Amino acid sequence: MIAIGCDHGGLQIKNAVIDYLKENGISYTDCGCYTEESVDYPEFAYQVAQNVADGKAELGIICCGTGIGVSMAANKVKGIRAAVCTDEFCAEMTRRHNNANILCMGGRVIDEAKAVKLASIFLNTPFDGGRHEKRVNMITDIENGHFNI
After folding, report:
1. Lowest CB count within 10 Å: 60, 100, 126, 143, which one?
2. Which tens digits make up the pLDDT trace of 44-54?
3. Which pTM value belongs to this model?
């Protein structure tokens, strides 16, 4: 299950990614928004992030104008590692090395075709583990207030 959401600035790329999910038989839950009327992005970022944090969704995708605002909001939810990606390399590496669980993209930064490509890479790339596991665990330690240098 993929949780997906957006604000008005990310609606078009969210809808393109939903079409991709449907075409590929990938189950998803659409957390909104559904029109181009101005809305507050933290509401939708929170809904997607909470679905992932609660285990209702394996991964999430959130879209706004740049991807930055929704990533900031989503990363406030415990257990979330949301990454803004604008190219294929970043979409792959954030899964391989960071075990990111939410992809954030900007509808004013990339077009629909690029959004679908990045979503496909993100959803189909596994976490490499190994030496990267230690680093992801360090991020969790920071989140939990247990990080010691």
Report:
1. 126
2. 999 999 999 99
3. 0.97
